[in-house]
Amino acid sequence: MKSGCFPMWQSLSLSSLLGFMVAASLFGFTRRVRSFAQPWVTRCVLSDRNYILQIQKWHSGYLDKFFTVLSCVVSVPFYTGFLPLIFWSGHKQLFRQMTFLMAFCDYIGNSIKDVISAPRPSSPPVRRVTSTEDEKENAMEYGLPSSHALNTVCLAGYFLHYGMTFGHEMDGFSVLIWFSVVCLFVFLVSIGRVYLGMHGFIDVAAGIIIGLFILAFWLMVHDHINNFVVFGENVKYFWACLSFLLFFAYPTPELPTPSFSYHTAFNGVVFGIVSGTQQTHVLFHSNDVPPILTPQLSLLVFLGRMLVGIPTILLVKFCSKALAKWLLPVVCNTLGIPIRSSGYVPALKEIDRSKRKPDNKQNGYLQRAVSCLRHKTYDVDSGIRFFQYVGLGWSIVDLVPHIFSLLNL
Asked: Into how many domains does the chain fold?
C-alpha cells in the first residue's frame, strides 16, 4: 500500500463514524435516549439522598482532606502531569496505552454524561465539598457515570495488567495482593465521591460497570492500537481525520458543561503523541530505550529529566495556545467560517446579530464552499484548546526527548 492512500479499513472506519453522526443527528438519537434514561436516573439519584446523608454523618476535617486528595490523585490534571513521567522513565508503551485509554474513557464517560444529562445529588441537603478549583469545575458536569470511578477502574486495572505482563514474574499470591490493592483503591475513590457529595451510588456503580466493560475491550485491542500507531501506514492522516470527526461526534448536553473541553484536550494530546511517535520512534520509542533504575537511566538522571521536561512542556503549551489564538481566527475569517469565542479571544465574543454591519464584500471560492456552515457560529476556543494540547502531546514525545539527548539526559 502506497503512502497517502487510505487502506480500506481506515476508510470504512471514518465513513462509519461519519454515517453514525449523520444518522444520530437526523433521528434525534441524543434526545430519544435522554427522554428515556434521564427520568429513571434522576429518580435513582433522589432515592440515594438518604444513604448519602447517612454516610456524611461521619464527616470530619480529616476525611474531607483525605477524600479530596484522593480525588485529586485520580483527576485529569493529575494524569496530565503524571503520564509524561512514565514516558521519560523509559516505559514508552505504558505511557501511550494509558494516555490513549484515558482519552477513550474521557470520551465515553463524558458522552454518556451529556447524553443523559442527569443531575448530581442536590446540595443542600447533601453537603458538597469542593475544596479545589478542579472539583468546582467537576461539579458543573452532569452526574452519571462517575468519571473518577470509571477512570480509576480502567487505569488501575490496566496498570495491574501491564505489571503482570511486562514486569517481574509474579506468583498467584502476589497477583492476589495487587488485585486486592486495586480493588481497595477503586472502593475508596468511589465511596469518596459519595462522601464528598459529588455523586450518588447509581453514578458510582455505573462508572465501575462501564469502566469494567471499557477495560475488557481495551485489553482486546491495545496491542493492535499500539502496533498501528508505531508501525502503521498513514497514521497521522488517519488520526487527523479521526480527531476532526470526534469534534462533531459528541452529544449536545441539555445545558452547557465543561465535559466537551476535557474531550477536546485529550483529543489534542493523543494526536500530538501520535504525530511525535511517528517522527521519532527509532530514537525514543523503540524497545532499546532503557527504563529507569538502570545504569543508562539512573534516578539522578530521571530527576534531571523532570526538572527540564515539565517546564518545557508547560512553555510549549503556553506558546501553542498563543499561536492558535492568533492564527485560528485569521484562518476561519479567510474561509468565511462564522466563529465566536467564549473566553479566549475577547474580540470574538458573540454579539447581537442585529447590531452587526452588513458585509458587502464579494465572497470568493473558499467562502462559497463553506457557505453551508453559515447557519450557526462555531466556538473557536475548542480549536484553540485542541492545538494547545496537540503541542503539549507532541513536546512530551518529540521535543523534550531531543532536549534530553542534547543535555545527555
From this structure: 1
The end-to-end CA distance of the chain, in Å, is: 38
Q: Is residue 241 part of a domain?
A: no
- In a 13 Å sphere around the CA of 47, the CA atoms on its Cβ side amount to 9
Q: What is the extent of the structural domain holding 74?
A: 26-231
User: Do 195 and 56 meet the contact criterion of CB atoms below 8 Å apart?
Assistant: yes
**Pairing outcome for strands 339-340 and 378-379:** parallel
User: CA 327: distance to chain centroid?
Assistant: 24
Return d(Cα 82, Cα 301) in angstroms, integer. 17
pTM of model > 0.90: no
d(CA 320, CA 249): 25
Q: Is residue 273 in some structural domain?
A: no
The three cell numbers locating residue 380? 473557536
Question: What does 243-294 look like in DSSP terms, one character per residue?
Answer: HHHHHHSSPPPSS--THHHHHHHHHHHHHHHHHHHHHHIIIIISTTSPPTTB
Which active-site residues does the annotation give? 148, 199
All three cell numbers of 171, joined, read 506468583
Ramachandran quadrant class, 293 (left: phi over 0; alpha: psi -120 to 50; beta: rest): left
Q: Give Cα separations from 341 to 246, 332, 346, 348 (angstroms).
A: 20, 12, 7, 5
Q: What is the pLDDT of residues 93-142, one digit of tens each?
A: 888 888 899 889 989 999 999 888 888 888 788 888 777 777 777 778 88
Question: Residue 106: which CATH number?
Answer: 1.20.144
User: By the 8 A CB rule, do 96 and 229 touch?
Assistant: yes
> Looking at the domain assignment, is residue 147 inside a domain?
yes
Distance CA 129, CA 71 (A): 11
